[in-house]
Amino acid sequence: MAETPEITADRPDSPIHTSGTDHITLIGSNEEDTIAYYRDVLGMPLVLRQPNLDDPNSTHLFFDTGDGRIITFFVNDDRQSNPAPLRHQIGSVHHLSFSIEPERFVEVREALEAEGYGYNEFDRGIFHSLYTRDNNGLTIELSTDKFSIPDDRRGEVLATAQRLREEDGVEFAEERHLEAALEELGLETEKHELPDAPTGAGV
């Protein structure tokens, strides 16, 4: 049986240490549908558009996800969108998660309804999420934190919540573990008011 990996926010003893996420690139359908979803529904500015440097017959679209981190798509007008759920296999993308402001959570949920997109809403214990699908059936998670956690301390907070969860002998990290982790680390944060929702465990 494989050894349980250590959970820690400390840098591993490895030859390379990444400094963040620069961008993620996906194979999209066509330009019109991709812009209609990511810019006009999710509100991501289209910040760069140029030929795909590896395939000049397709176009490369760059969207700012909201904090300067970029998601890009290779699109071609000969490809039609297909909203059917994607089949997953090893190496495929299961879902993408984008942050939304907690005070706008209900507004975002209502906007999805108004735009005709179905969704599931779950309280995941340490965060709260809406799950929907884009124009090509890719699952999109719109997630908000229950507490305002500084970006540069996020890994440390989650690793501490993991330890507290293990000490508690429960299977999933819960809100109380996150709250205790913040207290242990001396981080004073605001708790956000979010609607009640099922946990979605096992779904």
From TrEMBL:
<feature type="domain" description="VOC">
    <location>
        <begin position="20"/>
        <end position="145"/>
    </location>
</feature>
<dbReference type="InterPro" id="IPR052537">
    <property type="entry name" value="Extradiol_RC_dioxygenase"/>
</dbReference>
<dbReference type="InterPro" id="IPR004360">
    <property type="entry name" value="Glyas_Fos-R_dOase_dom"/>
</dbReference>
<feature type="region of interest" description="Disordered">
    <location>
        <begin position="184"/>
        <end position="203"/>
    </location>
</feature>
<dbReference type="Pfam" id="PF00903">
    <property type="entry name" value="Glyoxalase"/>
</dbReference>
<dbReference type="InterPro" id="IPR029068">
    <property type="entry name" value="Glyas_Bleomycin-R_OHBP_Dase"/>
</dbReference>
<feature type="region of interest" description="Disordered">
    <location>
        <begin position="1"/>
        <end position="22"/>
    </location>
</feature>
<protein>
    <submittedName>
        <fullName>VOC family protein</fullName>
    </submittedName>
</protein>
<dbReference type="InterPro" id="IPR037523">
    <property type="entry name" value="VOC_core"/>
</dbReference>
